[in-house]
Write a structure and sequence with these properties.
The protein has 489 residues and is an alpha+beta fold. It has two domains: 2-237, Nucleotidyltransferase, domain 5, CATH 3.30.420.40; 245-428 and 449-489, ATPase, nucleotide binding domain (Nucleotidyltransferase, domain 5), CATH 3.30.420. The chain has a seven-stranded mixed β-sheet with strand order 18-19-17-16-20-21-22, with helices on both faces. A four-stranded mixed β-sheet has the order 3-2-1-6, with helices on both faces. A hairpin with a 2-residue loop joins β4 and β5 (43-45). α10 (237-243) crosses α17 (432-445). The longest helix has 27 residues, at 368-394. The radius of gyration is 22 Å and the shape is globular. The relative contact order is 0.13.
Length: 489
């Protein structure tokens, strides 16, 4: 018997088949598909119906292999959502978090409610595209969506609803909205009132590992398959990725590395204090009663966008080619703060990096290799700073860093991260979110006893590459300059 994990990232999705045999996990990519946003007029949307179609294609491929599925789980990115109307149908296409309708909304809401009050109620870091600011933008625009909406569903909730007909809000993703109060364990009524959002719009919150329905008869009839249980996993993909960290000790630091980088540690309780707010850390829901104390870092998005810009200019490079050019470039030429707001929207990243260098008194990168080296070295340096913050906020000292996610295929970034932090990096597994998704399904079925048994099985099932720090004094000296140039303290 097998189970199926759908793992949807900001640029692609995949259906991963999982089998548990002799206390080892076996995974197979059954279906992969692009996840391209769609610009329609002035708005940037997710192609949500295409994603639903691709999920059904994964089920068809399982059918064609003669597989009988025990369960299905879905994880995706956070913060984005759709509304269901009174007739049970989707109202409009969900906005993409990089759409500009939230421009200036964070600052406008702060004029009505102090940031410290919002953080105290939610423990969530401030990012301009957070759900709270998206909803505030809709309210300010007097959007008809809010007038007609009866149910609020995050993206994985919405995809699950298409499959099952049942509407639930899953915990790990609900916490990312900046509308969920982790101390009270419910949607925050004060914040909902401030945004003039009816309480009944927000549904029951399911914990990871909960049953969330069965494939609806219309889906089974369309595809010619039997009904399959759907499990609410950690539906924020980072929550699933952290579940897959093959840690041997309960005190560990992780970096989920992909389009976004998310670094932090796992805690039993949210860490909500002034230091966490000043560092702009977040407390997102985890699996089985845990929280993820972490910070979002812009990640490989900057490199992905730079590559697209070079392609538009007629220079097509593979990622291995870009990494090779970076390795050949001179070290520590230029630094950026990856989280500078100029790098958030899509567009011409090489030009933005040159502009950043000029306004911070640095020599701009002169070619592709120097630009890529700037991006990767700056990410590694930012990882060091955020790891130091994580240790301070959690009161822990970590012996190394676990890296999971597709970014670990960039072995140069893994090595430079070890060099920057001065500690070993343990990289693996690459399909962290999908593996964590599978693990929670098996725990829900009783095949694994708890998350720690799951992590032991993951450690025994997938290779982990170890990177020892090198050239320590050079990197330590360069880190000091990185902090001065970027203004990070």
């Amino acid at each position: 018997m097998a189970i199926l994990a759908y793992d949807l990232g900001a640029s692609s999705g995949r259906a991963i088949l999982g089998r548990l045999t002799s206390r080892k996990m076996e995974v197979e990519e059954l279906h992969r598909f692009p996840n391209d946003p769609v610009q329609a007029g002035d708005r940037l949307h997710w192609d949500i119906l295409r994603l639903h179609h691709e999920i059904k294609q994964g089920l068809l491929k399982a059918k064609h292999q003669g597989l009988s599925l025990e369960s299905i789980g879905i994880d995706t990115w956070a913060v984005d959502f759709g509304f269901i109307g009174g007739n049970g149908e989707l109202l409009g296409n969900p906005y993409h978090y990089r759409d500009n309708h939230t421009d200036g909304m964070m600052e406008r809401l702060f004029e009505e409610m102090a940031p410290a009050d919002i953080f105290e109620r939610t423990g969530i870091q401030f990012l301009p595209f957070n759900t709270i600011f998206q909803l505030y933008a809709l309210r300010q625009a007097d959007s008809p969506l809010l007038r007609e909406a009866k149910h609020f569903l995050m993206i994985p909730d919405l995809l699950r609803y298409f499959l099952t007909g049942e509407m639930w809000n899953e915990f790990s993703n609900a916490t990312t909205t900046q509308l969920y109060n982790p101390v009270q364990g419910k949607w925050d009524s004060v914040l909902l009132q401030k945004l003039q959002l009816p309480q009944e719009l927000f549904g029951t919150v399911l914990q990871p590992g909960s049953a969330a329905g069965q494939l609806r008869p219309s889906v089974c009839s369309e595809l010619g398959i039997g009904s399959v249980p759907v499990v609410a996993v950690a539906e924020h993909d980072t929550g699933s990725a952290v579940a897959a960290v093959p840690a041997t000790e309960r005190s560990f630091a992780y970096l989920s590395c992909g389009t976004w980088s998310l670094m932090g540690t796992e805690t039993d309780q949210p860490v909500i204090n002034e230091a966490a707010r000043q560092y702009n850390f977040t407390n997102e829901g985890g699996v089985f009663g845990t929280y993820r104390l972490l910070k979002n870092i812009m990640g490989l998005w900057i490199l992905q966008e730079a590559r697209r810009e070079w392609e538009r200019a007629g220079q097509a490079y593979s990622f291995p080619e870009l990494v090779a050019k970076a390795e050949a470039a001179q070290p520590f030429g230029t630094f950026i703060d990856p989280d500078d707001v100029s790098f958030l929207p899509p567009g011409d990243m090489p030009s933005r990096i040159r502009d950043y260098a000029l306004r911070t008194g640095q020599r701009p990168p002169q070619d592709v290799g120097e630009t890529v080296r700037c991006i990767l070295e700056s990410l590694a340096m930012k990882y060091r700073r955020v790891l130091e913050m994580t240790e301070e906020l959690s009161g822990q000292a970590f012996g190394g860093l676990h890296m999971v996610g597709g970014g670990i295929h960039n072995t140069l970034l893994c090595q430079w991260t070890a060099n920057a932090i001065g500690k070993p990096v343990w990289a693996g597994p690459a399909e962290g979110s999908a593996i964590g998704n599978l693990a929670v399904q098996w725990i829900a079925q009783g095949e694994l006893s708890d998350i720690w048994e799951a992590r032991r099985v993951i450690r025994d099932s997938f290779p982990v590459a170890e990177y020892e720090p090198q050239h320590g004094s050079d990197w330590a000296e360069a880190y000091g300059r990185f902090c001065r140039v970027t203004g990070l303290k």
